[in-house]
Write a structure and sequence with these properties.
The protein has 308 residues and is of the alpha/beta class. 49% of the residues lie in helices and 11% in strands. It has a single domain, classed as Rossmann fold. α3 packs across α10 and α6 runs parallel beside α7. The structure holds nicotinamide-adenine-dinucleotide (NAD).
């Protein structure tokens, strides 16, 4: 029967070395790590934190909203950006001295071709942001139909799966992948079952990919934003209702901006964040902390009105 190292090697196609064989080698590793850490601190004194200088980044859904804000931030932090989108993002890529590749992320061959092209152009890919997404067909579970699930799973989930699958051979150790999930991927939202299910499954894939790719030195994380002021929110079925609900129940009672989400993505991909993998970062405006003051006040007001 294969041992643990053999099994891991079979999964990753690489030989896995035991990290520590005896006391002497453990001591040596500690000394080496301490030396490396002090060098890093010295270098960091001259560097910008969370800088992406010289990194090659591919961002799907990069022509609009969160993806575009991410491309702009990455460019400002020194990265070369590749914008991939089903919509035309060529002018936006040009503004950032980057590359635009027309891509439907629901089509595996197009995602593979995108990543081949980016790697051919720049030599490798250091960062992949699987961000392209759609939100359609709001309705209860009884109202939603198979097609709602299929379309959103094809784009939101499979787009990210294809990205992870095909980027690995182009991504050296130190690489980072971020998947854009949602608050709807960590909480239930009545009326958004199919969207929510696609976003919950992205977190499952994020965690499995983080485990499978850790031996290659590649980190995989997800961001889970609350409502964000982007064209997706404009096109949403009931944007005014959603904004009103957020104002009522979310402690920081406003929509996030696309740049606030992009900042979290930059944090997760930067080398400064090297110990974080398999994480789903909540950009929740305090939702997970508990019931907002304004919700409590509204409930109390409703109770008092009923008592009168
Ligand atoms: N806006 C929000 O409130 C919100 C909240 C949480 C999570 N998200 C997620 O953030 C991500 C970005 O959304 P956004 O708010 O910036 O919306 P957006 O509509 O501004 O941007 C989405 C981009 O994805 C592209 N896209 C859609 N289908 C595609 C496909 N098949 N192939 C390639 N590109 C495709 C669109 O053309 C668009 O440019 C999505 O995954 C979305 O689910 C959004």
């Amino acid at each position: 029967m294969a041992g643990k190292e053999d099994t891991l090697a079979a999964i990753h196609g690489v030989a896995i070395q035991p990290t520590c064989q005896n006391d002497d080698s453990a001591k040596f590793s500690e000394q080496a790590a301490a030396g490396a850490a002090s060098m890093l601190i010295m270098e960091k004194g001259e560097e910008q934190m969370f800088d992406l200088d010289g990194k090659i980044a591919v961002i799907t859904g990069g022509a609009s909203g969160i993806g575009l804000a991410t491309a702009q931030r990455f460019h400002a932090a020194g990265a070369q950006v590749v914008i991939a989108d089903i919509a035309d993002g060529s002018a936006k890529a040009e503004d950032l001295d980057g590359l635009f590749v027309h891509t439907d992320v629901a089509d595996e061959s197009q995602v593979a071709a995108l990543l081949d092209r980016a790697a051919q152009h720049y030599g490798r890919i250091d960062i992949l942001v699987n961000n392209a997404g759609i939100a359609i067909g709001a309705g209860t579970i009884s109202e939603q139909v198979y097609e709602d699930y299929r379309l959103q799973f094809d784009v939101n989930l499979m787009g990210a799966v294809f990205g992870i699958k095909h980027v690995v051979d182009h991504m050296p150790a130190g690489g980072a992948i971020v998947n854009t999930s949602s608050m709807a991927g960590v909480l239930g939202f009545p009326g958004f079952a199919s969207y929510g299910a696609s976003k919950w499954s992205m977190i499952g894939i994020t965690k499995t990919a983080a485990l499978e790719l850790a031996p290659r030195g590649i980190r995989v994380n997800a961001v889970c934003p609350t409502g964000v002021a982007t064209p997706m929110m404009d096109d949403d079925v009931a944007p005014e209702d959603e904004v009103a609900m957020i104002e009522m129940f979310q402690p920081i009672n406003r929509l996030a901006t696309a740049d606030e989400v992009a900042a979290a993505i930059q944090f997760l991909v930067a080398g400064d964040c090297a110990m974080v993998t398999g994480h789903a970062l909540h950009l929740d405006g305090g939702l997970f902390a508990g019931t907002s003051v304004q919700s409590l006040e509204l409930a109390l007001e409703a109770f008092r009105t009923r008592q009168r």
